[in-house]
Amino acid sequence: MLNCVKINKENIIKNLKRIRSMTPLICVVKDDAYGLGIENILPVLYNEGERYYAVAFFEEAMEIRNIYKDVNIIILNYTEDEKLDEAVANKIELSVFSMLQLRRYTEILGEKISELGIHIKFNTGMNRLGFDIEETEELCNIIKSKKLQIKSVFSHISNSENIENTEKQLEKFEKILSLAKKHEVDYGFMHISASPALFKYDGKYNFDFSRVGMAVYGLEPLGTDVGLEKCISIESKIINIKNVRKGEYISYGENNRLEKDTLVGIIPMGYAQGIQMQIENKGAYALVNGKKAPVIGEVCMDMLLLDISGIENVNLLDRVVLVGKSGDEEITLRDISKWTSTIQDDIITKISKKIKRIVV
User: Fold this and answer.
1) Which residue ranges does the chain devote to CATH 3.20.20.10?
2) What CA–CA distances, in Å, run from 354 to 38, 86, 236, 267, 268?
3) What are the strands of the beta sheet with 117-121, ordered from one edge?
4) Amino acid 203: pLDDT
5) Residues 204, 22: contact at Cβ < 8 Å?
6) Residues pairing with 6 in the sheet
7) Rg (CA), the chain
8) What average pLDDT does the structure give for the chain?
9) Half-sphere exposure of 10 (CA within 13 A, CB side)
10) Which CATH number does the domain 9-212 belong to among 3.20.20.10, 3.40.50.1400, 3.90.1010.10, 3.30.565.10?
């Protein structure tokens, strides 16, 4: 195959064991396990004993349920009206984060609302999803009157590296928990930490569970590395080699004129495969035969041009590493995030699903 994403199973297990030494976890496998393929990641986590999973949408929850009947699954995003009965029947747990949503679900399900496993999300400062603290009393009354089956209460930290704001969010969350206790509501377990807070605060805010996704897959969750094992590599192959003379233009447009005679290697990955166009003229490179091959010219829909001048013995169909190691050199997702001014999750989830994922 010309292009592939390789997933290092043993390194995922190493990261998982490290995280489990810090906290019980809900494994976040949303958005096709961060683009790695849920069919690749789920068996690894399950075989290591993990039984609680978080997804974004109902379809992902059912994909897991059809494989494993003995696991808990929480949907973090909105679940459509027509899926509610199916969620109850399949014991899929839903996040509920607003009065509008709760009233709609109650109207649709009627008395069956008490059979639905619910995770109540509170807004403590991210201002995206979640009940506000002022709604706690009304919410508690509804929970008791409708006999709602509350699995947990949770929130989400907006910026774990801002200690002051994180402390404010935690204070608000703990106040909400106190109000729920005051109203004698059984709210199950509690969780607020995701990968960044888990490593930033060394377990201080773990509560009963932490929701962990990116750290399991080796994506560094903070501004400085925390020493996670790298689990992902992205590879392609040289499909053409051209000698292009000084003064000639390469790729689209006339913005890329060569200042020297250049040996150009072309690989069959472009923006349609998930290579972000922001890497142009940002010092980005790939690795060919253990050497850096700078990206030159505009990123094409399904091709990328590399300067392979000075790299010895480059041949047709030679391996090219876009993420991972080659010889003594390494490109990390964090390197790419700097070149593209984005985050690691954004990079990996944009790699086309048509590129084969291989567990090694």
Assistant:
1) 9-212
2) 14, 30, 14, 16, 13
3) 189-191, 149-154, 117-121, 93-96, 72-75, 52-55, 25-28, 210-212
4) 83
5) no
6) 233, 358
7) 24
8) 96
9) 1
10) 3.20.20.10
66: left (phi over 0), alpha (psi -120 to 50) or beta: alpha
Residue 137: φ, ψ to 5°: -65, -45
Burial class, 17, CB count within 10 angstroms (exposed 0-12 / middle 13-18 / buried 19+) = exposed
Asked if residue 85 has pLDDT above 90, the reply is: yes
pLDDT band for position 29 (cuts 50, 70, 90): very high
- For the chain, the residue count is 360
Residue position matching structure tokens 């003064």: 247
Burial per residue of 170-206, b for 16 or more beta-carbon CB atoms within 10 angstroms, e otherwise: bebbeebbeebeeeebebbebbbbbbbbbbbbeeebb
- Rounded to 10 deg, the angle between the 58-65 and 38-47 helix axes is 50
> Which of 283, 293, 263, 261 lies closest to 338, judged by CA?
283
- Give one DSSP letter per residue of 301-339, joined into a string: SS-EEEE-TT-TT--TT-EEEEEEEETTEEE-HHHHHHH
Q: Does the reported pTM lie above 0.90?
A: yes
Q: What are the DSSP E strand ranges found in the chain?
A: 4-7, 25-28, 52-55, 72-75, 93-96, 117-121, 149-154, 189-191, 210-212, 232-237, 240-244, 262-267, 285-288, 291-296, 304-307, 319-326, 329-331, 356-359
Say if residue 263's pLDDT is above 90: yes
Judged by DSSP in three states, 287 sits in: strand
CATH class of 232-331: mainly beta
Here the tokens at position 331 are 């490109």
What six digits make up the tokens of 304?
């990328």
